[in-house]
Amino acid sequence: MHDQAYTAPTAAELEELDRTWDSPPGLLGWFSHVNHRSIGRRFIVTAFIFFLLGGIQALLMRLQLAVPENTLIDPDTYRQLFTMHGTTMMFFFAVPVMEGFGMYLVPLMIGTRDMAFPRMNAFGYYVYLIAGVVLYGAFFLGMAPDAGWFSYTPLAERQFSPGLRVDFWATMVTFIEVSALVAAVEMIVTIFRQRAPGMTLNRMPLFVWAILVMSFMIIFAMPPLMIGSVMLALDRTVGMQFFVAGGGGDPLLWQHVFWFFGHPEVYIIFIPALGMVSSIIIAFTRRPIFGYTALVLALVATGILGFGLWVHHMYAAGLPQLGMSFFTAASMLIAIPSGVQIFCWIATLWDGRLVFRTPLLFVLGFLVIFVAGGLTGVMVASVPFDLQVHDTFFIVAHLHYVLIGGAVFPLFGGVYYWFPKMTGRMLSERLGRWNFWTLAIGFNLTFFPMHQLGLEGMPRRVYTYVDGLGWNGMNMAATLGAVLIAVSVTLFLVNVAVSLRRGAIAGNDPWEADSLEWTAESPPRNYNFHPIPSVAGLYPRWDTRAGRMTPPVLGLRNDVREVLVTDPLDAEPDYKSVLPHPSYAPLILAFACTVAFLGAVYDVRWVPVGGVLAFFAMVYWNWPGTVERTPPWKEAGRGER
Amino acid sequence: MILDLYLLFLGVAVLVMLGVVITIGLALFRRGRTPVDGDPPAEGEPGKFRAVAGATLATGFILLVLLVSSAYVGQVTSREPGQDERPITVNVIGHQWWWEFRYIDDQPSRTFVTANELHIPVGRPVILRMTSRDVIHSFWVPNLHGKIDLMAGRTNTLRIRADEPGEYRGQCAEFCGLQHAKMAFVVVALPEEEFDGWVEESLRPAAEPGTELAQQGREVFLESQCSLCHTVRGTGAWGTIAPDLTRIGSRRTLAAGTVPNNRGTLAAWILDPQHIKPGNFMPATQLPPDRLHALVAYLEGLR
Fold first, then answer.
1. pTM for this entry
2. Spatial distance between the Cα atoms of A346 and A59, rounded to a whole number of angstroms
């Protein structure tokens, strides 16, 4: 392909290509989109809406805990609030938002026009949206789950949690895992098979590596939870006894299954954030990153070690001492890859020519807060120490340090960094700084006192506490901090709303960054790239800017959705593949699955009904000729060039 | 021991934190803020490699020290007490949302039951054998030891020892449903002779009503629904699904640490327990004022 004489594409060619990859207009057309940027943006926006909902729940809880013996929120509402807060933030915000960024950015970073299975993408989004809407529908009808985001048995069994509340939790959590699995498969295939020629594995951007590790973790971590939550649903609906001690089951089994998922889940959220940190550090230090190989190995090591830690959530369950000390060792071991990454980033900053813009501020905030959270993580890995602070506010502090510090700070940095690429406009730098400082101060004011509260004996998940234990001042400080966080998030929303209309025009590469997405237009045209770039180094955009040109890849048709498939290791071109055009099939299949899952809340006999409907939806999805044909509403193409 | 371990971890954490923050600070202000257009510099020099590798090795070494000290403390604090230390054994049973304590003795006649207040002798090890009647609870007295879960179908053991007499507050640490927040208890550590006296008193049947009013109160107690769930040893009340009331008059609090125990709160609790602790399993009892008055007088006398 490289031999062909290259002439710059004409405007007419680009116009045709743009139409080929265009998504149908209008509200009705919206439901048939399959483009990775369209779907990725939906994931991100929807996840932020859930972030706001979860944040409002947190704020209400903090208001309740501001003073002792408060009666603002009754205990029944309170337990629904903290269950929904945990469930929302873990399942409906953190994982989907990372998937959304992955979907949007990965094809742009590896130089391709769409993901491998665009319709699966769309299907995953509808599943996610429906699961969230159903769960919140139940919440507003007063039927929100109330047994905690961990739903420990036997509390979550029908005997102690009658009604449909926990059924909604079990089925909707299973449902949303379908969405995560679909996205993971999609991303692995795209990353392995659609990289631009020359982008060998060791030239892949660290963010893409992070998404790859995250996707593999999803594939190994989510099925255990799905099986667990299905078993719980069976216990509750058809009277199985998987987790019932009296019936020969074992409530501890649930804890093992849940945490075998639950601990990797933390890393599923956190690893893509590490990828964002690396991207931002490279762009804002204006130098190659220190220790690329070490960083990649650290990501992979974290992904593997993350599966060997789950028992440290169960130290108080009465397991044998010797067995637990292995998990202490494993939990401490994970500090090493985390440490390696921190050291490499600091070494990069040390030699970098720093550009102090908002994304870098958020990354610096991440470094400090995450190190603090990591250190308390080492502390709670110790069994005797953890037995003191387990299930107290110390753990609440620790987990928010690693999750907000480790994932939300990089995420905000990532939004400030990639917003220009996604919208074509810059976010306001002034509001961005206010956003950062209010968040950093509010965050520490909220969560730092919680360490001491936990050490002084305040348990988690209590709707109130008695006066006279010396906890009042710290609780009030935490509540004030939470209000400040709310102010910060409001500033962020204002910034987004204003900048969407009046932000400075970004241009293709506002940050003079290193990776391929900055060679595309802002926002990218429907086809992302034309011609497809080829890659000769780790920092292709910098290579181009320095005049080290690489040959363009030609030979893809303009009238059909063709992408180039390359081989997994060396990204040598293999063949061309035609992607499907927009379709309503994903939406229909998602509805069919909803019949099965939502029906199961009420009566398991709905499951086969949904299965039959899903069968017909899949037939429609795969109907011969509807998949790869040029969409009928397009003008006829010009044929092979 | 655990405090020493905490201080070790805390010291290391503070040092590492300072080290990282100072290094980041130095990295930030080492160079000017003027970015230079054009080619970025080449890959890092060997000197930086040594610094990063050294920091990684140091991390590994620090973790090893922490791991060994953690395992050592774990070993020491979970040691079985020897017979010469004369341990006493108490079975702890968790309920939604109160604590049952059964004092175990080799002679069956010397076992007795109480609730929400655990009396222990100073200086002697206490072996607590934990289980649950319903969901998972977790027994935790921050100033005595770490916590352990109570689970139906399992018996977990925790050993505590109080070295100073006094009252130690404890609370359920595992989310156990609606009133998890109000499932507290108190550990009362008594000097050995006082503890022995307390045990002898607890072994006796309930105190006889001292006044005529209390006498009527006992009749009210036995005639109404109270005795279906509660036990008062030596009377016809032997319900077992709610706290034993044989010495209710001597307890410091009502409803597992929810309100202080006095005449007013006792009467309010009997009339409308759902107002004080919503969702608990005690039903309201409708009593005319004179009968309530008598009942409270009786319960107060159960010391």
1. 0.94
2. 34
